[in-house]
Design brief:
Strand order of the largest sheet: 2-4-7-6-5
Radius of gyration: 28 Å
Distance between the termini: 52 Å
Number of helices: 22
Shape: globular
Number of strands: 18
Structural class: alpha/beta
Strand content: 5-15%
Largest sheet: 5 strands, mixed
Length: 613
DNA sequence: GCCGTTTTCGGCCCGACTGTTTTCAGTCG
């Protein structure tokens, strides 16, 4: 039996183990529970398939997976099941684990409900529970009441209508509206989008917003009256959550201005960044929270065996800004995009100037000097997606954006509707057209125009235009638009063959992923990186919000492997040229500096590189 | 069960909110 375990399956399994330990004896297994949850989180966020890492004997590289869990996973991949896990699950109803996806239902609640209501079938557990709730059976159970029954029912109904993680730009739109609303309240001094939104993750779950105010209760009250809310999920003294009509959750946290820096730090996350930061601080004798920093007096260590394990804490030190918060801990300010516990904390610690990893000076939007992936409406008769805007308009916009150069990279002419000589003719005409544009435009707007093309890489690795056609281009981008389902080795060969011609400089949207739509294809990245570095080929970071491809974790790998990238919009109209910032976010999340991004170079420097054959 | 510029042993982030068991357990981020 060789089931194909995905990362999602594995994370769920590890979480179930943690849940089982929680039910059996939360205190006894306290640290196993934490360890399994952490391992599950790690697997969820892993940049490659755990199964592949196991194949390559690299399981140890995943943080939070040590020798014990690694050997359990080894058993899982070999036998399809794990003896130790079966033991941990023994005596517990299998159906309880199905209930854990209901918000507000944790291990103990799930256990109690399945046990008392005699829910047996894991595949029907949620709907069985829903039926019981409707019949009023839950309220009769000890520890439950009418309200908790209603809450469970609501949660079940919402879980089915729940929207998946939303794309960053959509989250920004929603957050902007809520923030505008909050700023209309005179008691609100400041309001900021935080969480994954501030870290510029490609997709966002809940929308997190912070407010500085001296009247938190009144602001919470105002917040819960937001016109587009469906219902209030919770509302306390300093935090509140609402569900919008669109089923998106918005979380709010409030602190006075004097302590706002700690709140920004806390609520920006990520969870793993905060945990690591707090562990590091603890070793220096500090305890961190959203309120500020306390010095711990270690000498007054708690007595052995005391029931209430509380550390003696000193006076709270407040911080008005995040810079001061990090500086107090002897660290440089860490840009939000880096806060993923990916080495940024170690890099931010000052003192040691000789250390190997330092915080990068991240690339900025204003460093970008041109857009090298644009589709105009020049009638190239492409196989798909002709642009909507005329070249002149796009050049004008580029000037407004402060660019020095542009590349027009329309899709190659369709091969089904044209003979080879017709394709050559179209390319010749395109070249003449751009020469004309360049000669008439050159005097008015100081923008260099490259005449390029986005060429399909066919499944056999050949390009979708005849080789001869390449001579009509300044350079070319190549991309995969068909036959995504190839195995990793063949896809790698296909792409490396496609990149081989000297005129080809850039691999467009290198993984082919579409967020919330399809996974990208797998590649042997080490080979791709090596090929690019040796042959001066560049990987695109597509700023297109549904692609954001290369993904951030591969940008980080590319930086490590000294492969340069370009950030481009893949615009099919003038308006889309404003999307560049989303590509810059991805680059920043991948630790990219200006020097890693080719299109931060001035026009003369980049011309030398792109036009060299 | 994991992990290491205080450690291969002895630690392990920190707090909010809700409903119900009126003093706290369970869940969440």
């Amino acid at each position: 039996m060789n089931k194909n375990f995905t990362n999602k399956d594995i994370a769920e399994l590890l979480r179930s183990v943690a849940a089982a330990y929680t039910v059996k004896d939360e205190n006894k297994y306290k640290f196993q529970i934490i360890a399994y949850q952490r391992a599950a989180d790690s697997v969820d966020h892993a940049s490659s398939e755990i199964k592949d890492l196991w194949d390559e004997k690299k399981l140890g590289e995943i943080a939070g997976i040590g020798s014990s869990i690694a050997s359990h996973l080894d058993e899982l991949f070999k036998n399809g099941k794990v003896k130790h896990f079966t033991q941990v699950f023994s005596g517990l109803p299998a159906a309880m684990f199905s209930l854990l996806k209901i918000p507000g239902v944790g291990p103990k609640t799930a256990y109690k409900l399945t046990k008392i209501l005699k829910i047996k079938d894991p595949s029907k557990a949620v709907s069985d529970l829903e039926k019981s709730a409707k019949l009023g059976k839950i309220r009769t159970i000890e520890g439950f009441g009418e309200e908790s029954e209603a809450k469970i029912l609501k949660s079940i109904q919402e879980v089915s209508g729940r929207t998946e993680r939303i794309l960053l730009y959509q989250a920004e739109e929603i957050a902007d509206k809520v923030i505008d609303y909050l700023k209309n309240c005179p008691l609100v001094i400041r309001a900021d989008p935080l969480g994954s939104l501030r870290r510029k993750c490609s997709t966002v779950g809940d929308i997190d917003i912070s407010v500085a105010s001296d009247k938190p209760k009144e602001v919470i009250n105002y917040f819960t009256k937001y016109p587009h809310k469906k219902r209030i999920l919770e509302a306390g003294e300093a935090t509140a959550s609402i569900l919008l009509i669109t089923n998106h959750q918005v979380d709010l946290m409030i602190q006075p201005s004097s302590a706002y820096g700690a709140l920004l730090q806390h609520f920006t996350g990520s969870k793993h960044h905060n945990i690591k930061l707090r562990e590091v601080a603890l070793k220096k004798g500090f305890s961190l929270s959203e309120y500020g920093i306390r010095k711990i007096r270690r000498s007054e260590k708690l007595e052995v065996g005391s029931e209430k394990e509380e550390r003696p804490k000193g006076k709270l030190i407040e911080f008005s800004s995040e810079e001061k918060f990090y500086n107090f801990l002897g660290m440089e300010f860490i840009p939000p995009e880096l806060r993923e516990d990916g080495g940024e904390i170690e890099a931010a610690i000052k003192q040691d100037q000789s250390k190997l990893i330092k915080l990068p000076r991240l690339v900025n939007l204003k460093d970008v000097k041109g857009d090298l992936h644009l589709h105009s409406n020049f009638p190239i008769e492409p196989s798909h997606d002709l642009g909507e805007s005329p070249v002149e308009e796009m050049v004008k916009r580029a000037f407004e954006l402060g660019y020095e150069y542009l590349a027009f990279t329309e899709h190659s002419p369709s091969t089904s509707r044209h003979t080879e000589s017709q394709i050559i003719n179209l390319l010749r005409r395109k070249k003449e057209f751009f020469e004309q544009i360049i000669s008439s435009r050159a005097r008015k707007l100081p923008i260099k125009i490259f005449n390029s093309l986005e060429i399909d890489i066919k499944p056999n690795g050949e390009l979708s235009i005849p080789k001869e056609g390449l001579k009509y281009l300044d350079f070319a981008i190549v991309s995969v638009h068909t036959s995504f389902k190839m195995d990793r080795k063949s896809m790698t060969e296909r792409i490396l063959k496609g990149l081989d011609h000297p005129k080809v400089k850039i691999l467009g949207h290198p993984t082919g992923r579409k967020l919330n739509e399809r996974e990208g294809y797998e590649l042997e990245w080490e080979k791709v990186f090596e090929f690019c570095r040796k042959n001066n080929k560049f990987l695109e970071i597509s700023a297109w919000p549904e692609r954001l491809d290369l993904p951030d974790f591969l940008v980080k790998e590319a930086v490590k492997n000294e492969v340069k990238m370009i950030i481009s919009t893949d615009s099919h109209s003038v308006e889309q040229m404003n999307l560049m910032k989303y590509g810059v976010y991805v680059a920043r999340r991948g630790w990219a500096e200006k020097k890693n991004i080719l299109n931060t170079l001035a026009v003369n420097e980049i011309s030398d590189i792109l036009l060299k054959c």
